[in-house]
């Protein structure tokens, strides 16, 4: 019986260690612990221009980039794919003329395992989005919907909120702000 308990506790502690590593790190602690990464530009903080939406206020994951302008076809296409814990970073050109993300695609993103979505633009269906277990950051909300022409660029470097963000980098978000790192961070 003692052997079974030891094996069970060993399995639990290895599971705990593996899953603790996947938990998002507090952004303030990351900044305090990595001044050298901030100095050399490998760790950047986005300017504090985003509103917090969705039930998951803390999220992290590898970045997928997308550049669109007042068009949401490519956003919807991405979120229909399995997310595998990734974060979709959308440069919507900072447009305040319409929403490029709504409740249905966010619900789909949640169901497909995306960790979060950061939008340099507006969203709509805020109450529906706030009910989803996913992290969403956007400049604001807007009732008008986007165009559906399918224009945009996938997996390209985007620049907004004071920094350049590349496909494959890592994003860490919490209520203090958003960090982008060239590589995955550990405590």
UniProtKB/TrEMBL annotation:
<dbReference type="GO" id="GO:0047443">
    <property type="term" value="F:4-hydroxy-4-methyl-2-oxoglutarate aldolase activity"/>
</dbReference>
<feature type="binding site">
    <location>
        <begin position="102"/>
        <end position="105"/>
    </location>
    <ligand>
        <name>substrate</name>
    </ligand>
</feature>
<dbReference type="GO" id="GO:0008948">
    <property type="term" value="F:oxaloacetate decarboxylase activity"/>
</dbReference>
<protein>
    <recommendedName>
        <fullName>4-hydroxy-4-methyl-2-oxoglutarate aldolase</fullName>
        <ecNumber>4.1.1.112</ecNumber>
        <ecNumber>4.1.3.17</ecNumber>
    </recommendedName>
</protein>
<dbReference type="InterPro" id="IPR010203">
    <property type="entry name" value="RraA"/>
</dbReference>
<dbReference type="Pfam" id="PF03737">
    <property type="entry name" value="RraA-like"/>
</dbReference>
<feature type="binding site">
    <location>
        <position position="125"/>
    </location>
    <ligand>
        <name>Mg(2+)</name>
    </ligand>
</feature>
<dbReference type="GO" id="GO:0008428">
    <property type="term" value="F:ribonuclease inhibitor activity"/>
</dbReference>
<keyword id="KW-0460">Magnesium</keyword>
<comment type="subunit">
    <text>Homotrimer.</text>
</comment>
<comment type="function">
    <text>Catalyzes the aldol cleavage of 4-hydroxy-4-methyl-2-oxoglutarate (HMG) into 2 molecules of pyruvate. Also contains a secondary oxaloacetate (OAA) decarboxylase activity due to the common pyruvate enolate transition state formed following C-C bond cleavage in the retro-aldol and decarboxylation reactions.</text>
</comment>
<comment type="similarity">
    <text>Belongs to the class II aldolase/RraA-like family.</text>
</comment>
<dbReference type="InterPro" id="IPR005493">
    <property type="entry name" value="RraA/RraA-like"/>
</dbReference>
<feature type="binding site">
    <location>
        <position position="124"/>
    </location>
    <ligand>
        <name>Mg(2+)</name>
    </ligand>
</feature>
<dbReference type="GO" id="GO:0046872">
    <property type="term" value="F:metal ion binding"/>
</dbReference>
<keyword id="KW-0479">Metal-binding</keyword>
<dbReference type="InterPro" id="IPR036704">
    <property type="entry name" value="RraA/RraA-like_sf"/>
</dbReference>
<keyword id="KW-0456">Lyase</keyword>
<dbReference type="GO" id="GO:0051252">
    <property type="term" value="P:regulation of RNA metabolic process"/>
</dbReference>
């Amino acid at each position: 019986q003692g052997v079974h308990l030891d094996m069970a506790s060993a399995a639990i502690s290895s599971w705990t260690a593996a899953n603790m590593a996947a938990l998002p790190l507090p952004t303030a602690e990351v900044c305090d612990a990595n001044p050298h990464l901030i100095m050399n530009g490998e760790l950047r903080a986005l300017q504090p221009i985003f509103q917090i939406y969705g039930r998951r206020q803390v999220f992290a994951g590898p970045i997928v980039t997308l550049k669109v302008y007042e068009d949401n076809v490519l956003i919807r296409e991405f979120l229909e794919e399995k997310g595998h814990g990734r974060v979709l970073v959308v440069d919507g050109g900072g447009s305040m003329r319409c929403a490029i993300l709504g409740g249905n695609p966010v619900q789909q993103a949640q169901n497909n395992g995306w960790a979060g979505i950061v939008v340099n633009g507006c969203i709509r269906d805020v109450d529906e989005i706030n009910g989803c277990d996913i992290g969403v950051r956007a400049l604001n909300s807007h009732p008008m919907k986007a165009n559906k022409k399918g224009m945009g660029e996938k997996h390209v470097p985007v620049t907004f909120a004071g920094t350049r963000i590349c496909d494959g980098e890592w994003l860490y978000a919490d209520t203090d702000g958003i960090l982008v790192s060239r590589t995955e961070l550990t405590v």
